[in-house]
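All the exercises in this workshop are built on plain-text protein records. A record pairs a protein's sequence with a compact description of its fold. Read left to right, the C-alpha cells trace the chain's path through space. Once this layout is familiar, the rest of the handout is easier to follow. Here is such a record, shown just as it appears in the course material:
>
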Amino acid sequence: MKLVYAAYIGLTSGMLVSCLPPFWIYTRLSGRYGKGLGERLGFIPRTLTQCLSGSPRIWIHAASLGEVKVAAPLVKALTRIIPGCSVILSTTTEHGRDLARKTFKQDIPITYAPIDFIGSVRKALSRVRPDVLVFLETEIWPTWLAEARQKGIKTALINGRISVRSIGGYLKFRPFFRNILKNVDAFSMILEEDAARIRAMGADPHKIEVNGNAKYDLLASIADPAMEAEMRQILNLEASHHVFVAGSTREGEEAMVLEAYEKILRQFPDTVLIIAPRHIERIPVIGSLVERHGLRYQLRSDINSGAAKRKEPVVIINTFGELFKVYSIGTIVFCGASLVPLGGQNPLEAAVWGKVVFYGPSMEDFLDAKALLEEVGAGVPIASSEMLAEKAIWFLEHPDALKRYGDQAREAVIRNQGASEKHARVIGRLVFSNKR
C-alpha cells in the first residue's frame, strides 16, 4: 500500500505543479479565488500561530458551514475539559471561514486549510505544530493523516459520518483507505451505522466509538426568540400569515414546491412562500420559474425593515447565513435536497424552533435526525408535490396538531444534547496519551 500512497502523492503533486501557475495568473487577472491562496499552500500567517500560547495545541478542520456548526459546541466543551488548551480552526470554503469568524470572533485563530499536497501540508503542520489534529464529519485527507503520523501528531475523526451514498465509492478503494485509516488514532462516530461503515472501510474496530451528533448541542443554544421577531418585522409578516419555507432547495425541487404552493393557496390564500436555494447562483432561474407560475416575487436583499417592505407572496433568499432564522417563522417547513437524490439537509435546524418538518425520500445523510423526528411524529416524509400539498393542508387545518408535534420536535432535539462533551473527551484522551 506504500506504493499506492506514493502514487497518490505523485498524482496530487503533478496536478498542483501543472495547475498552480495558470491558476495564479487567473486569480491575478480576474481577482477571483485568490483569497487565502498562501494559506492553502501551507503558509499559515505567523500572526495566527502566535495566538496559540496555551497547551496542548488542537487543530480542528471544519470544511464548510455544517462542520463549523459542529466545531462551536466542540470547542466550548474542549476548553472546559482541557483548561489552557489552544485551538486553531481551518476551513476549506470561504463561507465556512466567514461563519467561523462570526462564531468565534477573536477567541480562536481561523485559517484556510492547506491543499492535500505534501509540500503544503508539511509547511502548515510545521508552522502550527499541533498536538492533536481533528477532522470533523467526513474529512479524510491521506497526506494530512500520513504527515501527521510521521510527525507524532495524534489524529481523530470527530462527529464522524459515512453516508449510505458515499460508502460504495469508499469500498471500491478499500485497500487504499484501510492503509490511510491506520494513521487515525480515534474515530468518534455519530451512529452505529457510521461506525459499521468506517469499519468496513478498514478502520481498526478498537479505535471506534459512537457518541452521537454534536449538531444537536449548538442548535438548542442559538434558537433565540428575538430572531423570529426580527424576521417577522423584516418580511412584514402579520400573525395571521401562514409561511411556507422551502430551505436548501436544489434543481428540480423548486418546481415541485411551487406546484404544492399553488394548491395550498386555494385554501389558505394568505400563505407566503419563502424559497432559500442551496446555491444562490441559481436564483435567476428560480425567479423565472416563479413568474411562469403566474406569481410575483422579491429578493431578500431588496427587503429591509422600514424601507422596501415585502408585498409579494414569494420571497427568494439571496443572502448567506439567514436560513436558520428564516426557519423560525415557518408554519410549514420543507427541507431540500431530499426530493432529488442528494441526501437531504439537516431537518433539526427547523425542528429546534418547534416546527414539523417535511422532506423527500432522500435523507441518507441525516438518518439519525430523520429517525428522531419521526419517532415523535414531527418528521413528515413526502414523495411528490401532491403529497406535500395534501399533508401541508392537513396540518394547516389542524393547528393544534401542528403545534403539538412541533413542540415535541424541539423537546426531542433538547433531550439529545451532550454529544459534544463525549467527542471532546475522545480528544482529551489523545492529549493525555501524548503526555505519558
Q: What stands out?
A: The first strand starts at residue 57 and ends at 61. The radius of gyration is 23 Å. The CA atoms of residues 1 and 299 lie 53 Å apart.
